[in-house]
Amino acid sequence: MKQNIFAGLDLGTTKVCAIIAEKKENGSFDILGFGSSPSVGLSKGMVVNIAKTAEAIVEAMSIARNKAGIDITEVNVGVAGEHIKIMRYLNYVTINNPEREVTQLELDRLHADVKMVQISEEKQIIHIIPEQFTIDNHIKVDNPIGMAGQRLEAAHNVVMAATTALTNIRKSVERAGYSVKNFILQPIASSLSVLEDEETDVGVALIDIGGGTTDMAVFEEKRIKHTKVIGIAGNMVTNDIRESLGIVTAEAEKLKREHGYTHESAIIRDQEIFIKRVGARGNIKIPTSLLTQIIHARMKELFEILNLELEDSKNKEKLKAGIVLTGGGSMLKGCVELAEEVFGVPARIGYPIDLTPGLSSEIGKPEYATVVGLIKNIPGNEDEGSEVTEIEPEIKQEKKKKDSGASKLMKRIIQFFDEL
Ligand SMILES: Nc1ncnc2c1ncn2[C@@H]1O[C@H](COP(=O)(O)OP(=O)(O)OP(=O)(O)O)[C@@H](O)[C@H]1O
Ligand SMILES: [Mg+2]
After folding, report:
1. What is the overall mean pLDDT for the chain?
2. How confident is the model over 168-188, as pLDDT tens digits?
3. Which end of the chain has fewer CB atoms surrounding its CB within 10 Å, N or C?
């Protein structure tokens, strides 16, 4: 496989996508091929069926390869799921050269030291991302090369994933006939395709609402500061509709996409919708506002959990550029309005940018944010996976709500239909 050819594979809960691109001399990427296939082998972002995942990879990759007319052997693969942890690691080196000047050697020594950090066998490092350097205890810089000093301190973000989750991904990719070049944290990939440089500089939270998981990542000063993956996403909204209205999943999904609103202000006219119900329960008409209540309750719960996480982790004040929503789940009408209401900061939808002309209509959609980012230059990849002592991860556990607003509302709606 040619050195300037890159392939990315996004193993999502609802779809597997493949992308093949060529890196041009000016550093930009030309997308040569793209393919997508429905996914049934994953749950909440993790592989639960290797054979089915491999089948979907074969299909998506062959569509992409046919379009590109290129043979592919290795791929960058996105990783997400509640097993992801980020640890902040601080270390230092003394600057020994006669000029007392920071060189690449000092940075390499710091990086090598981070790689030696001991973590439990259940985890593996996928990225070591430098966050900030401090020279002689007071000068803080992003890039210290060429600066004079005696002692260089560094803060690195160490991104870790469960070894078993990575092994299952690797097995699926290999069964499909490819090898894994790099594992890449999905929110990092999505950020590279939908965020503007200024946003990651001044401070932004990227929220990727997928089918099985919602991934949030906070960026400031062009670095990832915090990440969180939670198991509430688009499929749960569909499931609420299905259970509340007593309809099949396909009908609930159709209802959500065609008539679903996240926020009442997004309803233009409160129309009546005709719905087909299962078995002898009969067909009924419901007002759009009832559907909105079901969707609103779950989406509000999702945003409130994320908002609490931002506040607890002291990241809320970083969001000077607001919130960017992406992933298929962000396509629900009214998502931006609800996000602005709950988070209290401006929000927008993130579409993949800088695409090869002609491809925007096919892949310029929020659901392809991750796969488009997988071909970009990812900072701090750890391709050979280091063995690393248990250190308390920086990320706190998600606050569990006993009986959420969404489930209370669902119970009321189910009761309403039963009484009917
Ligand atoms: N137009 C739309 N309106 C509402 N929801 C939509 C729309 N298009 C897609 N979705 C929802 O987006 C979700 C899928 O999003 P996406 O393709 O980003 O997920 P994924 O990457 O497969 O999953 P994950 O990232 O969770 O592993 C589904 O729940 C689907 O219902
Ligand atoms: Mg996804």
Report:
1. 86
2. 999 999 999 999 999 999 999
3. C
Least confident of 160-169, 316-325, 391-400: 391-400
The pTM of the full predicted model, rounded to 2 decimals, is 0.86
Q: Tell me what pLDDT residue 377 has.
A: 61
What CATH class is the domain 196-349+397-420?
A: alpha beta
Give the residue extent of every domain in the chain.
85-162, 196-349+397-420
Residue type at 112 in one-letter notation: A
Determine the CATH number of domain 85-162.
3.30.1490.110
With H, G, I as helix, E, B as strand and everything else as coil, classify residue 317.
helix
Q: What is the pLDDT of residues 74-89, one digit of tens each?
A: 999 999 888 888 888 9
CA distance 125 to 393: 13
The rounded Å distance from CA 14 to ligand 1 centre is 7
Among the bound ligands, the one closest to the CA of 12: 1
CA of 210 to the centre of ligand 2 (A): 5
Is ligand 1 within 6 A of the CB of residue 332?
A: yes
Measured CA to CA, the distance from residue 186 to residue 196 in angstroms comes to: 17
Using CB atoms within 10 Å of the CB of residue 175, give its burial: 0 to 12 exposed, 13 to 18 middle, 19+ buried: middle
Model pLDDT, residue 201: 92
Kindly give the distance from the C-alpha atom of residue 330 to the centroid of ligand 1, in angstroms, as a whole number.
8
- The residue with tokens 């209370």 is 408
Q: Is the CB of 15 under 6 A from ligand 1?
A: yes
Indicate whether residue 78 lines ligand 1 (CB < 6 A). no
Residue 325 tokens, joined: 């929503």
Ligand nearest to the CA of 38: 1
**The ligand 1 atom nearest the CA atom of 366:** 18
pLDDT level of residue 27 (50, 70, 90 thresholds):
confident
